[in-house]
Amino acid sequence: MNAPTPSLQAQQAPPQRSVPTVRLTTAQALVRWMAAQFVRLPDGAEAPLFGGVFAIFGHGNVAGIGEALYAQRDDPQLPLPTLRAHNEQAMAHAAIAFAKAHFRRRMMAVTTSIGPGATNLVTAAALAHVNRLPVLLLPGDTFVSRAPDPVLQQIEDPHDATVSANDALRSVSRYFDRIVHPAQLLSALPRALRVLTDAALCGPVTLALPQDVQTLAFDYPEPFFVRRMVTFHAPAPLATELQCAAELLRGARRPLLIAGGGVLYGQASDALAAFVRRHRVPFAETQAGKGALKWDEPLNCGALGVTGSPAANQLAAHADVVIAVGTRLQDFTTGSHSLFPHARVLAINANLFDTLKCDALAICSDAAPALDALSTQLRDWCSGADWQREALQAADGWREAMLNLTAPATPNADADTDTDTDTDTGTNADTTAGSARLPYDADLIGAVQRSHPDSPAHDIVVCAAGTLPAELHKLWRTGAPGGYHVEYGFSCMGYEIAGGLGVKLARPQREVIVMVGDGSYLMMNSEIATSVMLGAKLIIVVLDNRGYGCINRLQQACGGEPFNNMLADCLQGPLGAPAIDFAAHARALGALAEHVDSVDAFAEAMQRARAARQTYVISIDTDASRTTAEGGWWWEVAVPETSVRPQVDAAREAYRAGKQQQRR
């Protein structure tokens, strides 16, 4: 056969189709792509995936990303708002809190300059990584051309010229990329989006943006910027895993379910309710999972673990199977693996890594489909009748105790009480005796919730570190998913106020109440000014115990002397420790604020705060040593093996005894 003629070859070749392009800088393309991503919310409404971009500009991002954000801010079809903050770590915390408040279905981006702006993101990125929360970090970077090296704020490594300050973000990012050519966005952005929207991979994404590359132009394909609906990814359960799990549970008489953050992020509250009601399985809550079901659900035994309720911990200690749903089983949940060491663990988690803990039997799946499918497999199976009665009695008793612990104090009540058990350490702690003693956290938690008739369903409480998360985990009554927003995966002091801002931006119709200790307030408070500027009203309750009271108690529980935690026990100059006026400070940042001297005065101030239209700060002096005695569990904190102090030796013996109870 003769070879076809060239003209015939040309006729048979597929027609050339040109894709329309648009010429944009790297920064313009990035911003336009972000604005084009949309999500469908649970109520059916559509919303932008990115709620905005927090930005603090510097020489590393003002000319590139800054110009692109300015052009996009008022785009009639795809607007993308830019929000200014006062601290890079704080604005990243706010962005992370925004995503957490949206159960990871919406998120924000953060852009900084190079140098300290970028390194200020490391703590926030670690927080997002630990908590499996999405945030897009866009730090500026040094010049790819290296023509002006070293530029202002540049980190120089004499052994590796490719290293910049942004490399510090590698270990705390779930996906990291450095964009050194405009075309790289075409592959980097889809990869970044997959991590941000995948239940198993979810966490912080860092795209380092060299400042010269931000400004380079490229002909991008126009379809890349078409408005599109984002798909969220999560694994479905395997039949073999379900069969093994069902077999395990059919042999169980005393099961306990642990509700973790994955229940909320997987929108599995209804599936959880159906499972525990059908199979009569009592359940307990982690910090991240609290509020998945209402506080008064009959089989809700409350908080679990080191900061747990007596009801939940009692059941956990006697359970034969623990169903861990959407929890990474960190040490505060497991009592450093001493709370249920003899129970078989069934782990249901979208992240395979988390299903491998505690030698668990695994169902690698998002929570809702796993619970639904497992329930179908179990059919009419229920927990033992005696176990159900024990669980209902324990849960009812704890709910009554919660209300009593947070009830208004009666005149001269507990006037003769001078010690309370420290929830975190199980030790006795001195208190101020007499009827004039200072209030402690539970008194104020109760006063906050009494200040609104529908507080459990109406309010969102925000907290992160110190004693307050322990008290809130036990005592805050949550009436709706998302009403409890405590960052305890990283337990990051300074998250509270910035996080409250992010929650308010996500849920503007809810009352957001930030409860924060004086130590965390002093670490990071600048976003009070941002909340005022944005009209994002917060109620901030500052509990002033004049130091790091939580660690002071832990220090003594480990046999140490009070040292370098409370202001009174710190090295001081001739003027002594300052008397800090938190209300005056908050007013200087633009908030309304007052200091009160009693729980009754605090209750009145809460009414004024609720009625206010702008951020309102209430400070009150609190007892540094008193905590709620009920509940709690052992927590492993290593104690010195030798010491000249007999108190340390005694603490070491208690530590050794605790370790004997751990899972082996």
UniProtKB/TrEMBL annotation:
Domain Thiamine pyrophosphate enzyme N-terminal TPP-binding: 79-153
Gene3D superfamilies reported for this sequence: 3.40.50.970, TPP-binding domain
Protein name in the entry: 3D-(3,5/4)-trihydroxycyclohexane-1,2-dione acylhydrolase (Decyclizing)
Lineage, opening ranks: Bacteria, Pseudomonadati, Pseudomonadota, Betaproteobacteria, Burkholderiales
Organism in which the protein naturally occurs: Paraburkholderia dilworthii
Membership in a protein family: Belongs to the TPP enzyme family.
Record domain Thiamine pyrophosphate enzyme TPP-binding: where: 465-619
Gene (name only): iolD
EC top class, as a word: hydrolase
Transmembrane segments: none
Region annotation Disordered: where it falls in the sequence: 1-20, 407-435
GO molecular function, one term: 3D-(3,5/4)-trihydroxycyclohexane-1,2-dione hydrolase activity
EC number annotated for this UniProt entry: 3.7.1.22
Low complexity bias (residue ranges): 424-434
KW Secreted (keyword) present: no
Annotated keywords: Hydrolase, Thiamine pyrophosphate
Pfam families named among the record's database cross-references: TPP_enzyme_C, TPP_enzyme_M, TPP_enzyme_N
Residues covered by the Thiamine pyrophosphate enzyme central domain: 242-374
UniProt cross-references to PROSITE patterns, sorted A to Z: TPP_ENZYMES
